[in-house]
Specification:
By secondary structure, the chain is mostly helical. It has 17 helices and no strands. Helix 2 (about 25-45) packs across helix 6, helix 3 (about 50-70) runs parallel beside helix 5 (about 130-145) and helix 8 (about 190-220) runs parallel beside helix 17 (about 450-465). The chain is globular, with a radius of gyration of 23 Å. The two termini are about 15 Å apart.
Length: about 475
């Protein structure tokens, strides 16, 4: 069931009405309803993998209790490593087994051995990387004595499988989400209206920006040898807006949907394409994953407390692991490596904390220095996205090679004026709303009510009139 589908448009109001009116405000019944609704939501994709989700939930729930009640440190470690091993084992089998098998065969072929490796014909369970990381953070926090285990199985299950975040995040922490699940929630009309606005903007990002950009990006990436270098440049830029509109659009819909139920999820995007360096970009892009790796990998490795070499080593580790988290393909690993290289100057010159504020905060326009920094950062990001999008490294290098050919000075092919103008309007709206949680959070807040409603209706009309060919959310594959 996709957020931009008719099925979800029917599903969401039904759950919303039952949640606020049929439960009569009983928190336990509300949580049970959320759990049943979440399992139904997940089953609409493939009911067979619902059992894997439930198994993962039971495993980490029991592990948390066993670690807390353990009579010795050794027994506590046993339960901890059992959970870590099984969770990562499932992730490894479904997501990485074939990658390692094929890579092993290729390595043997380089030294003259031909191996007929055995691979698995399995479907990657949607959302497995996200709900696995939910469980891992919970287990690690209990092991480190940061939190106590949740003894209510229903509440813990909702934390893992709350349907707005189930298949593509944000990756939540027990310290943030569980207290909200455990307390009584009152309907707040202003919060619900704000949630609907964020859902609307998320649908615009996905259906108008991402899906239209995807048409052009797919055309070029899928047959890149037929197009000029300038067309490759445009396709790479369009893919950058495709993945941003797609994933941040999903996150906006997820956060807006959660607000309808009185729950605030972690913010996942903060206008990353207005970043002035790569370090700032990664503080603003997929925030829940970046902070997860910071807290559960970078800091345990020593973080920034050691010397320069340790900071460089730890940075490359988290970016390579982040690349591998995204997919079992060398293209993702190279993408992670490139981002580590891009951020390296910030580490060497200790400038990675220079841009903690919002660019041109309180101003309408940025200065020339800020504009230049944004354009350089965006260009580096687009270069990295080429590896993220390409099917393999050969295609990625061929794509880049075309950009640096003489044909880059020719006129780009196949661009539609409507897509360009929609992108321009989108960038302007994002810039004007960059100090808010999402672009249209405060747009028209002081306008007369009829004018404000006209603004929302215009967005709805644009979605229906200019929506692109429907594409699956990119991050469903991770």
């Amino acid at each position: 069931m996709l957020f931009n589908s008719l099925e979800f448009a029917i599903f969401l109001p039904i759950v919303f009405l039952l949640y606020w009116f049929a439960t009569k405000g009983n928190m336990k019944i509300q949580n049970l309803l959320l759990l049943i609704s979440s399992y139904f939501f997940y089953s609409c994709w493939d009911y067979r993998f619902l059992f894997l989700l439930i198994f993962s939930t039971v495993l980490d729930y029991v592990t948390g209790l066993k670690m807390h009640d353990a009579k010795s440190e050794g027994l506590k470690k046993f339960w901890f490593w059992l959970s870590i091993t099984i969770n990562l084992g499932f992730l490894g089998v479904f997501k990485y087994f074939n990658f390692f098998a094929d890579s092993f065969a290729e390595a043997l072929s380089l030294v003259g051995f031909q191996a007929d490796v055995w691979t698995l014909k399995v479907i990657l369970p949607v959302g497995i990387s996200f709900y696995t990381f939910h469980g891992l953070s919970y287990v690690i926090d209990i092991y480190k004595n940061r939190i106590k285990p949740e003894r209510n199985f229903i509440d813990y299950s909702v934390f893992v499988s709350f349907f707005p975040l189930l298949v593509a995040g944000p990756i939540e922490r027990a310290t943030h989400l569980l207290p909200q699940i455990q307390r009584k929630r009152q309907f707040n009309s202003q919060n619900a209206v704000d949630g609907l606005k964020q859902i609307l903007w998320g649908l615009f990002k996905k259906m108008v920006i991402a899906d239209n950009c995807a048409i052009y990006a797919n055309m070029v990436f899928n047959d890149s040898s037929e197009y000029s270098g300038s067309t490759h440049v445009v396709a790479a830029i369009f893919f950058a807006f495709q993945i941003y509109g797609d994933f941040s659009g999903y996150s906006d819909i997820a956060l807006g949907t959660a607000r309808l139920f009185g729950i605030d999820l972690l913010r996942n995007f903060a206008f990353p394409y207005f970043s002035r360096d790569i370090a700032e970009f990664w503080r603003r892009w997929h925030i829940s994953l970046s902070t997860w790796f910071r807290d559960y990998l970078y800091i345990p490795l020593g973080g920034s407390k050691g010397g320069t070499w340790m900071r460089i080593r730890n940075t490359f580790i988290i970016f390579l692991v982040s690349g591998f988290w995204h997919g079992a393909n060398w293209t993702f690993i190279v993408w992670g490596f490139l981002n580590a290289l891009f951020i390296l100057p910030s580490i060497l010159f200790s400038t990675n904390r220079n841009h903690l504020d919002i660019v041109a905060q309180g101003k309408t326009f940025a200065n020339f220095k800020e504009i230049g920094a944004i354009l350089v950062t965006f260009s580096l990001t687009v270069l990295g996205w080429i590896f993220f999008r390409a099917d393999n490294l050969t295609d990625a290098f061929a794509f880049i090679g075309k950009i640096f050919s003489i044909s880059v000075f020719s006129k780009p092919e196949g661009i539609t004026n409507s897509t360009v103008w929609l992108l321009v309007a989108f960038i302007v709206m994002e810039w004007l709303g960059r100090e808010e949680q999402y672009a249209i959070a405060k747009t028209g807040i002081n306008w007369p009510k009829p004018l404000r409603w006209i603004f929302y209706y215009v967005i709805v009309i644009v979605i229906f009139e200019y929506r692109g060919i429907s594409q699956q959310f990119i991050y469903f594959q991770f």
